Amino acid sequence: MSNYLEAGSIVAGAGGLTLWMEYLNLNDAKLGLLGALSANGFGSAIGAFLGGILVDKFGRKFIYKYDLLVYMLGILLIMFSFNFPMLLVGYVVTGIAVGAAIPAAWTYIAEEAPKGERAARVGWGQFAWSIGPAITLFLSVLLAPLGLLGSRIIFAQLFVVALITWIMQQQINESTIWTEEKEKEKSQREVGKQDVSWKQLFTVKANLKAIVLLVGIYVFWNLVAGVMGYFMPYIYETVGGLSASQANLLQGFLWTLTVAATYFVFIKLGDRVNRKLLYGVGAGMGIAAWLVLTFGGMGMFELITFVVLWGIAAGFGAQAFYGLWAGELFHTRYRAKAQGFIFALARIAVGLISLVVPLMITSLGFQSAGMIMIGFLVIAAVIGLIMAPETRGKSLEEIQEDRYGRAEERQRQARN
């Protein structure tokens, strides 16, 4: 449900973007600022960075006591916005809450999953992430006759779901792996060992390799996905000439395909089929989708082809594998902190590009912008194909031993 709320809030803002633009008479700069500071950009970057630190220090469950309360405050501000500053603050507050929940959710799922079902469990998080936008966009079509009121109602349903989810989250247990690791660290402190430092995240070889892989696949892929998540209906309307309802319906169909691909490919095959192969197929389909959109024009045939290719590819693309590998490749003591750092980096990148997307399309033209997106996807594909690990069927403890080893662990303790 956290994943549903997080993705749903990003797309709720995107689905009503032109409505807010007309209501508040927003220019390209203000549109870019909304995208940059929202749950799609800097807002979630701040939340993820802070959330990663808190989740490693106080526990995976800690974040669930407060996070959705902040989320609901942001949603209320958006629901009742009547000027740009109020809308912007609502987007920022919601974004911080969204970012803070990410390292908690993906870390908790990975740590509690059986070793032979970890991709499937992570996949269910991705499944919910995809359902959020699909439902939000279809609601946008259904409520389109109501104009901006319809957009406010969509945020209202997110508020209701968030309230129910917050009540449910109070019942979960703390991560067993995190609890055991904290007991070990407590024992080490009693004999004079130092706590884990940020320096270790960037100096331990296994951490560096994981960071390079995850930044390479997720940051560059997310530059494209982030632009799509927030600006794609806007692009369909301003470049493709579609109505707001047509744009939201098309994007809702895309997310429905992502839901299906997540279930039938990532959940069903992620623990059984070579993961580098799955990643490569998804990356190739994503590149093909943007080639069609960029060089084929924006006729209905090209748009449908793009939606089918990207929608299916996203179900087992970089985000699904990021969620899986980010939980697997880091030692328990670094896991949430590392995820918070990488996710924050990805959202900062999206925030920066969101500042200029409307202006880039207006001044350079969509084809030039599309070529930049293709370049990002190629970089993510190459890095993933070169560095993708094979961790199927192993417990987190076995992966940890493979990557860090007893010798490196002794060296770390000696340095402390």
TrEMBL record:
Domain Major facilitator superfamily (MFS) profile intervals: 1-392
Subcellular localization: Cell membrane
GO cellular component: plasma membrane
TM ranges: 31-55, 62-82, 88-110, 122-143, 149-168, 210-232, 252-270, 277-297, 303-326, 338-361, 367-388
Any one Gene Ontology molecular-function term assigned to this protein's record: carboxylic acid transmembrane transporter activity
Key word Transmembrane helix present: yes
Gene3D superfamilies noted in UniProt: MFS general substrate transporter like domains
InterPro entries given in the database record: MFS, MFS_dom, MFS_trans_sf, Sugar_transporter_CS
Membrane topology: Multi-pass membrane protein
Signal peptide: none
Keywords of the record: Membrane, Transmembrane, Transmembrane helix, Transport
Pfam families cross-referenced by the UniProt entry: MFS_1
PROSITE patterns: MFS (PS50850), SUGAR_TRANSPORT_2 (PS00217)
Domain of life, per lineage: Bacteria
Protein name: MFS transporter
Organism, scientific name: Terribacillus saccharophilus
